[in-house]
Amino acid sequence: MALVEMLLVHVSTTGALLAAVLLLLMVYLFSTSSSSSGDPPGPKPLPLLGNLHLLDLRQPHLSKKYGSVFTVHFGSKKAVVLAGYKAVKQALLKQAEEFGQRDITPIFQDFSHGFGKTPA
User: Which GO terms describe its cellular component (predicted)?
Assistant: First the structure.
């Protein structure tokens, strides 16, 4: 009888854990939809990693799929990518107010030594 009770407790604990994981997964999937937030389109990020698994500098395939302006996530940090001369020109000349308020990435600060440019 004790074995049956222990088995029932174990099954109910496993079931509750599985239900909690499924609930968290559903909340994550519905909360990360970027179409309603007004951000440019982009790949759906993974928890903690973001889109780091998709980045390949030798094959810039994301701009072919999402266009010249798209959103990627570096871990939990969101970034808007401008791919191409026209997108950069429009952003810097016609929408300078919005793009002037962006964060300065700490690694860029290290590379540029505070001068705003990186060595070639």
Answer: cytoplasm
Residue 39 resides in a domain: yes
Give the list of residues 6+ apart from residue 87 with CB closer than 8 angstroms, or none. Answer: 68, 69
Per residue of the chain (120 residues), give pLDDT as tens.
676 676 566 667 777 777 778 777 777 666 655 455 688 899 988 888 888 888 887 777 888 899 999 999 888 888 888 888 999 898 888 887 877 777 777 777 777 776 655 555
Residue 85 lies in domain? 32-112
